[in-house]
């Protein structure tokens, strides 16, 4: 693993820990001002910009405070000289949700770029597998 990949892995692990703890400043710390996030809940056209990204998190933190988890299960990172991507599977749900569907995982994909020697997240995509049998 390259030094850049180690740095990015640490950045993502810190971010996931901050999400789990509901620490907003740490959640947004390593994100670009022009971040684009495609999330599970609406808006379907995505969230654009750091202010909109910041505004999207409080409802999740409130839901999570009722016992939900947000834990990285697997994480892969590939880094070039100034761009990188990572993908992960996370346990994201309540105990009741995992009792009903223990295999369910949140899928996370990140696009990063290096600015002034520092890695930042420029794109974030969250999704769950489609499971509607109807």
Automatic annotation (TrEMBL):
Residues 8-130 form the SnoaL-like domain. Pfam families: SnoaL_3. This is SgcJ/EcaC family oxidoreductase. It comes from Streptomyces triticagri.
